[in-house]
Specification:
Blueprint (H helix, E strand, L loop, with lengths): L4 E3 L2 E5 L2 H4 L7 E4 L16 H6 L11 H16 L4 E5 L13 E6 L6 E2 L2 E2 L2 E7 L13 E3 L16 H11 L5 E4 L6 H8 L3 E6 L2 H11 L23
Parallel strand pairs: 2-11, 3-4, 3-10, 5-9, 10-11
Antiparallel strand pairs: 1-2, 4-8, 5-8, 6-7
């Protein structure tokens, strides 16, 4: 399949990731699939973010629990089959549909990020599969403080903030390794990979988001010094 974009170790494919994944091979999957966060008929479902998400970010995918089961879950399973480790954003109850992870992590969001049937949401859970790279050299925290704002001007309704993905790709992948994101969206994972010396493959079913991601990747590599994201690291005991 001809790439939509291919430059400096970063490749984008436009299409359904379920059809593309079987022909790929990568070191690690880092992805944030679409999910119905804040959607549903519970008491906190009328907040602003819920109404924004109901606008449907995808013309080809309706963000419902049924479609998550039929589309996202098989894609994540297919992605796990072509990598050695993975980090997947998966909030409850969607997370329970995915294969059992090796470990759990999260982005802790200091300001409430929507509601659940039990109250405010302050975590963006991450499922980890396999074993962290170079674990024998020392363990790293699997929870980070969610600092930094999403680039809402990029044209995607719910992009992850770049500092989040800078932290996660460094946790999950060694420099030079190949990262796979089968739900690329606006390309934040690929941008983080480029800025931290990793290679990456992104797959996106919506062509408009492929174009957005390609434009973001054409920007110069950002200089973060020796440690791109020290502010999001948590020390043992939960202190900064």
């Amino acid at each position: 399949m001809k790439p939509y974009y291919d430059h400096a170790g970063i490749t984008i494919y436009h299409g359904d990731c379920r059809a593309i994944l079987p022909g790929l091979q990568a070191d690690v999957m880092v992805t944030d699939p679409p999910y119905g966060m804040n959607l549903g008929k519970h008491g906190g479902a009328k907040d602003k973010r819920a109404s924004e998400l109901r606008r449907q970010a995808y013309a080809t995918y309706e963000d419902t629990p049924e479609n998550y089961s039929e589309s996202v879950v098989p894609a994540i399973i297919a992605g796990l089959a072509v990598v050695t480790r993975a980090a997947v954003f998966a909030p409850v109850p969607s997370a329970w549909q995915l294969p059992a992870p090796s470990a759990l992590g999260a982005i802790y969001i200091q300001a409430p990020n929507g509601h659940s049937p039990w109250g405010f949401q302050n975590l963006a859970p991450i499922l980890f599969y396999g074993t962290a790279p170079d674990l024998h050299l020392g363990a790293h925290n699997t929870v980070a403080i969610g600092r930094g704002k999403a680039d809402v001007a990029c044209g995607h309704p719910c992009p992850k903030p770049l500092p989040w993905m800078l932290w996660l790709v460094q946790l999950a992948a060694r420099p030079g390794e190949l990262i796979l994101d089968p739900f690329m969206g606006s390309g934040t994972t690929l941008r983080a990979a480029k800025d931290t010396g990793r290679r990456a493959i992104g797959i996106e079913i919506e062509e408009r988001y492929c174009e957005i991601a390609a434009k973001r990747l054409q920007q110069e590599v950002l200089d973060f010094g020796d440690d791109p994201v020290p502010a999001v690291q948590l020390s043992i005991g939960g202190e900064e």
